[in-house]
Amino acid sequence: MNPPRLHRILFVHAAPGIPVGGVAGGAVHIREVVRAMVRAGHDVLLVARRGSRRSGEPLPVLPCPLKLLPQGTLPGVLQRIPQVDETVYDHRLSRFLRSEASTYEPTLVYERFSLFSLAGANLARHAGVPFVLEVNAPLARERSRHEGLQEGGFTRRREEKILAAADRVVAVSFRPCFLGVFLVFLLRPCVFYAILAVSVVRRFFS
Fold this sequence. Notes:
By secondary structure, the protein is an alpha/beta fold. 40% of the residues lie in helices and 21% in strands. It contains 7 helices and 8 strands. The chain has an 8-stranded mixed sheet, sandwiched between helices. Helix 3 packs parallel to helix 4. The longest helix has 23 residues, at 82-104.
């Protein structure tokens, strides 16, 4: 049996609300996934929008390099419009990732699903490497309920485009069937993975 292939993984985390060093479940999950990747022998570079909850706080201790690309200087009113703020950031992040990839030379791009972020998918396509998307929730629906974000139109099209770009989808949920049904409605047939309590369960949808 051939040994598993080891990758140079460029891990993209573009969501503005979850700093890598935070105490929320999402932040803890990101750090643990990175640690698991490194323990498995992979080389990892983590690129994120925020490293800590507040300016001046120490960055988290990780077993891999962490590179930060904060948001630029949009006028305050535009920063409060997610469709504008996060899409503008996505363009900046795409340029930043291409620059990093020119020296890091990833063999796989892994991105935590962020509603307006196509940066990981674009980089993977440009570099000719697989794109793995980690989906934690149906974000258009969730953010429309909790943040008042308009779910239809541009938001829905963006979500569908990101999901359809993935070569593999990893769903992190204690209700994998719910997420599976959500993904099947949006995606071409694909391998569906559900991470449950640090173990991986393969589920195939066709």
